[in-house]
Write a structure and sequence with these properties.
Fructose-1,6-Bisphosphatase, Chain A, domain 1, D-Maltodextrin-Binding Protein, domain 2, 2 domains, alpha+beta, 7-stranded mixed β-sheet, 5-stranded mixed β-sheet, globular
């Protein structure tokens, strides 16, 4: 399977994300008051936002006559792909955040020329509320708003700013919480795609989510962005270190700024 050129894919992602953003904000502005007043639950609101974003992407792809196989949290039975490319989409990453008014959510788009996340060769993440965008193309580095970014050379966990997913984690029983003994700066932000991107640009040093709750579209783009920024990424799907795009779920990830930081984290977590 041939790879599309960088300029084509980057422009495609930018244009698609802009239309997705516009549709998201139309729905956001229309319904946010109803959520605040209790007429609509945050979960219902999140579904409306996901559907709006996915619908905008579907319309865009059909108009552009670019129809890869789409793997997404929200998609459409009537959509018929005409190519074998894998397009991995999270219409709104951080749905719980945006549906409650926490302004930290993203659009994530990635394309792969094979059935595993290792085959992703281009990824794009757009912060919905700030407009900041991250892009990476295999072998050509990672960029934020057109400026090349690099990870921070942090090697000690005690110095690391760590984003750790804690939903359903139980103190004393959950492996991931062990890292809290070894760092002074834990965080939990609620958007895996953006948390990876913060590692890529050196704002965070570690992103840990080993609950088995992630799906390939949560990190399809961002894991490449971390790698292209010089970081190290460990992933697992069930018991396999090969993450299948087609299996979608049960994904774990640790994104680290440096090899030593990743190795130390794996040791602490017993992985």
């Amino acid at each position: 399977m041939d790879r599309y050129e960088r300029n084509f894919i980057e422009r495609l992602f930018i244009d698609a994300a802009e239309e997705m953003y516009n549709r998201i904000m139309e729905v956001y502005e229309e319904y946010k008051v109803k959520v605040h007043e209790g007429e609509l639950t945050p979960k219902e609101f999140g579904k409306l936002l996901d559907y709006a974003s996915a619908s905008a992407l579907k319309d865009f792809l059909e108009r552009e006559r670019f129809k890869p196989r789409v793997y997404s949290e929200e998609w459409f039975e009537e959509y018929k792909p005409s190519s074998n490319d894998f397009l991995i989409v999270d219409p709104v990453d951080g749905t719980s955040n945006i549906s409650r008014g926490v302004r930290y959510s993203a659009i994530s788009l990635a394309i792969a020329d094979g059935p595993y996340l290792d085959n992703v060769y281009a990824g794009y993440v757009r912060n919905i509320f700030t407009g900041e965008s991250y892009f990476a193309y295999s072998g050509e580095g990672a960029y934020k708003d057109g400026r090349q970014i690099r990870v921070r050379p942090t090697v000690k966990t005690i110095d690391a700013f760590v984003s750790i997913a804690i939903t359903h984690e139980i103190p004393g029983k959950s492996k991931s919480l062990e890292i809290l003994r070894y760092t002074n700066y834990p965080r939990h932000l609620g958007s895996a795609a953006l948390e990876d991107c913060l590692v890529a640009e050196g704002v965070l040093d570690l992103h840990i989510d080993i609950r088995g709750s992630l799906r390939v579209y949560d990190i399809g783009a961002s894991q490449l962005i971390v790698r292209e920024a010089g970081g190290k990424v460990w992933m697992r799907q069930g018991s396999s270190n090969k993450v299948s795009i087609e299996k979608v779920g049960k994904v774990d990830i640790i994104s680290a700024a440096t090899p030593h930081l990743l190795e130390k984290t794996l040791d602490i977590l017993g992985l």
